[in-house]
Design a protein that fits this description.
This protein is 37% helix and 13% strand. It has 440 residues and is α/β, with parallel strands linked by helices. It binds iron/sulfur cluster (SF4) (2 copies).
Length: 440
Amino acid sequence: MAVRYLLSTKFPTQQQHYHHVTSSLVPNSHNNTYDGAIPAKVELRNIKYKCVQNVKSLVNTLKLSTPLESLHRGNWVKLICGASFEDVVDIRNLSLVYTLAGVDCIDCAADASVVSAVNEGIEAARDIVCLRRPWVMISVNDDKDLHFRKAEFDPEDCPEDCSRPCENVCPANAISFQGKSTFGISYNKAPRSPKDGVITERCYGCGRCLPVCPYDKIREVTYVRDAIATADLIKRNDVDAMEIHTSGRQSTMFKELWCALGDSVGNLRLIAVSLPNDRDSTISCMNELFSIMKPNLQCFNLWQLDGRPMSGDIGRGATKESIAFAVQLAKAKQRPPGFLQLAGGTNAHTIDGLKKEGLFQATSIANGETSATSSSNSSHALIGGIAYGGYARKIVGRVLRSMQSQYGGGAPIEDHPEHLLMALREALALVGPVKCLQRD
Ligand code: SF4
Ligand code: SF4
């Protein structure tokens, strides 16, 4: 049954809210004291209290199924923190907000400190409202892959007159020139900050900075996650799922990784394989990968259809490739068992695209051409759900940036309930339609 997730009372915009709260904190012009300080503090405390109550009310309206039930119903939502994104402060806050918004899974880098940050965010969310825990998934690769790279350059090599298009194009605020002057003097003449250049932990490898540098100063550095370290990670009791990114063209690499992971995969509840659309070869590739996994596969499996990698934040058109991929797979008769889930370019337009194709929570294609589960022996939804990455991080990231500019970089979002409420509303606007929640 559909439930409402937006409160009917309008919460003021951030600007209105802070004008309202801070206006009574302006010093008295005669004696320079804060005449209104005590009432303002009380008012601020009341506002924070109301925000917490609103957060609880919103979350308490959600009727969440278990992650596995969501996959069967076709309303699974996964938050992708980014296979290479390692900013643990943002990751913790994103995990907290999206846990409250009801995601089924949080996918993150296969790194111990990142996994800990995700779990910390989840538990902080569950301290606010008692709700079920989303699965934690780690992402690894079997070979060179776009999701497993970082940009790199030496800012000392940058010409003084460069307008820094790299900084403007970066969606992750991962390029910084803190040594710049704010008074019109070239940043190159100001002392360099040790943080000038690419902030490695924030770079998630989207590659948008690479072609825009007019001096060709930016390099990409690729890496492959270590299989032994991954095996150790998935033995942790706070890791539930793993995703293997593969091109599918070199199944020997996939097999090597699968064998190196050994019995550790027995600890998992779900194993996902993320692959690009290789047109006519896709189904045969999936069948080959499945045959490699099958002897040691003791849990559910999922195919992540990576339409247009790391592009969901760009705009409406970015989601077309993931929808086309879903249509192609839904029609395929010989696909191996496993849930199907969209990714790569997914954003607020994806759900409408799926509905137009008759694929949202459907067990058969709208025009009746093909049986939904012709090759999977089960009655689950044709498309298990959607994973959101760049777009999900962008909409909540705006709130996080605003909060951090006021309170500093390490601020836990639950300490600032007014920001938590704003972030939760953003997250619910994305997650809600997949979960069939109604907007007011
Ligand atoms: S690769 Fe993407 S995230 Fe990394 S620095 Fe370049 S633009 Fe930013
Ligand atoms: S665009 Fe290239 S040259 Fe200019 S600041 Fe960025 S990396 Fe340096």
